[in-house]
């Protein structure tokens, strides 16, 4: 089991808090894991989970113009199933532009608290072994049980490791065992510029 570094507690707000290195970036093990997983599925490219643009995967670092991560939930059918440290997870990718979120067409906001999701602090071209969306909970909605919607944590409470949010938890109210903090992306986020202009005739 990979154990990450302790989360920095930043009392001055969220601005300075980023996802810390969990020690598996840029190593050969991670590189070979991604390449062999894709080869088994006969894939040489992946699609960004947010904008769906195709991304080539290279056999050297940086592996992709974005970041890979492993989620316990399959955010889209293009995310292939992998076995990682005994767990069944899904290999997911976010492109650099979407991580950055600077272009308004790429930015996504929490549907509940409206806070923009910011992936600009993530290391590019490698892989996180946990769900990067779950790892950055913005508001109390993120701490609710996926089944009974009761709060599983105090809204001010935070888990010790970013990867903790991707682990299975049993809800004390309804007894449902799930990775409750990993939510479907469409449930949590909306595109900032959701207004599509009607096609002019
Ligand atoms: Zn993208
Ligand atoms: Zn929120
Ligand atoms: Zn529950």
Automatic annotation (TrEMBL):
<dbReference type="Pfam" id="PF16002">
    <property type="entry name" value="Headcase"/>
</dbReference>
<dbReference type="InterPro" id="IPR026066">
    <property type="entry name" value="Headcase"/>
</dbReference>
<dbReference type="InterPro" id="IPR031947">
    <property type="entry name" value="Headcase_mid"/>
</dbReference>
<feature type="domain" description="Headcase middle">
    <location>
        <begin position="17"/>
        <end position="185"/>
    </location>
</feature>
<protein>
    <submittedName>
        <fullName>Headcase, isoform B</fullName>
    </submittedName>
</protein>
């Amino acid at each position: 089991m990979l154990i990450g570094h302790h989360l920095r507690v930043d009392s001055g707000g969220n601005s300075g808090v980023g996802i810390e290195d969990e020690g598996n970036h840029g190593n050969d093990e991670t590189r070979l894991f991604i390449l062999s997983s894709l080869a088994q599925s006969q894939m040489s490219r992946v699609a960004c989970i947010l904008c769906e643009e195709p991304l080539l995967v290279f056999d050297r670092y940086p592996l992709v113009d974005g970041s890979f991560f492993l989620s316990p939930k399959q955010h889209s059918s293009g995310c292939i199933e992998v076995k990682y440290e005994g767990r069944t997870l899904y290999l997911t990718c976010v492109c650099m532009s979407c991580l950055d979120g600077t272009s308004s067409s790429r930015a996504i906001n929490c549907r509940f608290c409206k806070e923009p999701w910011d992936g600009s602090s993530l290391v590019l071209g490698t892989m996180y072994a946990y769900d990067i969306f779950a790892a950055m909970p913005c508001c109390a909605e993120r701490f609710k049980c996926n089944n009974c919607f009761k709060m599983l944590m105090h809204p001010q409470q935070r888990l010790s490791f970013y990867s903790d949010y991707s682990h299975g938890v049993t809800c004390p109210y309804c007894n449902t065992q799930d990775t409750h903090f990993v939510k479907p992306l469409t449930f949590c986020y909306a595109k900032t510029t959701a207004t599509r202009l009607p096609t002019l005739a």
